[in-house]
Write a structure and sequence with these properties.
Elements (H helix, E strand, L loop, with lengths): L3 H20 L12 H19 L10 H40 L5 E4 L4 E4 H16 L2 H11 L12 H43 L5 H41 L1
Antiparallel strand pairs: 1-2
Helix pairs in contact: 1-2, 1-3, 3-4, 3-6, 3-7, 5-7, 6-7
Length: 252
């Protein structure tokens, strides 16, 4: 009689640990607007679909419970490590949105963000929702799953990745996050800065001019105009950076 635990249950559980932990953190998949039950079922179905492809790479059921626990912990760690870098890329949009809101006078326009369950500035929420929509439209969510599948070629089951390399990779993503955020917000930041400089000069030339009441609506209108004109370039930049990151994740 075949050993069901060794042939199916244990290998499937290990696959589910890596894919499930990654899906719970990957951008778009892990939004709070998506029910936890749906994410759990999605992780189960994806793990079941991957089982025939990854069965040969799964180890046998160990006799010692400590070894089995170590397998589970390592698989969860690998899944989280692979997904957290992509998740950090979404923070670049938060950085860009906050910079845009600050320089365009929209920092007080707070809205409820269904993705995180907190309040965010209007530019941050707009950029984040647009990026998540494009991730599904351009099938980048498929590339995220492919990256997890390819990770078995470089991180076999039961082998802990090099912690130094993992720390370096996460640190590099954090640095890139601020760089990308500033590049995305650069057009609005430049226009906002020039607007503030111009009204500072007007305040010196015409002290009676109520600069605050005159500058605020002009700054908001100018910021919205520049945001509308450069929105395609902003989102394209973010999507290109995210795509390149996923490609490198599958190639490294």
């Amino acid at each position: 009689m075949p050993d069901i635990a060794n042939l199916f249950v244990f290998p499937f559980f290990l696959i589910f640990m890596r894919f499930g932990s990654a899906i719970m953190i990957f951008p778009a998949y892990s939004d709070l607007s998506i029910s936890k039950r749906i994410r759990l079922l999605l992780a189960l179905f994806i793990s079941l679909a991957m089982f025939p492809l990854l069965e040969s790479k799964m180890p046998d059921l160990p006799e010692a419970n400590s070894v089995m626990v170590s397998y589970i912990v390592i698989e969860v760690f690998i899944g989280i490590s692979l997904a957290i870098s992509s998740r950090l890329f979404m923070t670049a949009l938060n950085t860009a949105g906050e910079l845009i809101g600050f320089t365009s006078g929209l920092q007080a326009a707070s809205l409820f963000d269904p993705r995180s369950g907190t309040s965010s500035s209007a530019p941050t929420l707009f950029l984040s929702v647009t990026a998540v929509t494009l991730i599904f439209i351009t099938d980048l969510h498929h590339d995220m799953l492919i990256a997890i599948y390819d990770s078995y070629n470089y991180f076999p089951v039961g082998e802990l990745p090099n912690l130094e390399d993992t720390t370096f990779a996460v640190t590099k993503v954090i640095l890139d996050m601020f760089r990308i955020g500033i590049k995305i917000a650069a057009p609005v930041m430049v226009v906002g800065f020039l607007t503030y400089v111009a009204f500072g000069i007007f305040n010196r030339l015409i002290p009676q001019l109520p600069v605050f009441f005159v500058a605020l609506p002009i700054t908001i209108i100018g910021g919205l105009f520049v945001l509308g004109v450069s929105l395609a370039s902003m989102i394209t930049l973010f999507m290109d950076e995210l795509t390149q990151h996923l490609v490198l994740s599958m190639a490294v």
